[in-house]
Amino acid sequence: MEFGVTKLGERGQIVIPQEFRKDMNLHKGEKFIVIKRTDTLLFKRMKPPSFKEFDTMLKKAEAHAKTHRLTEKDMWNAIKKVRARSKMEEYENSKDGLRYKIVSEEIEKLNKLIEGHKKLLTAIGNL
Length: 127
What we know:
Largest sheet: 2 strands, antiparallel
Structural class: mainly alpha
């Protein structure tokens, strides 16, 4: 795997090293999908498939649907699930989601503490 060093510009721009641009035939205006995972950014070139590649993907999808007896309704339900999961992940990674998680953990600790106190009071009452 090759690597290069670059820096973030004043307006948030990142320069892809010239050698990489040349090797990958990248040109001004090309679009990329940017994926964030912890402290890593992954850039994937957005390149539409050729008609042949698209036809191959479509045939594979149709064969998979037929093999597993999937309907159009099944497809839409799967899309809804993925979108809902994506929204939940987005919320969990947000400041509000982090606050909610911290508060929930603190409430759980308090509940355990209260249960411990109840047991202690019950034990004292049985003396």
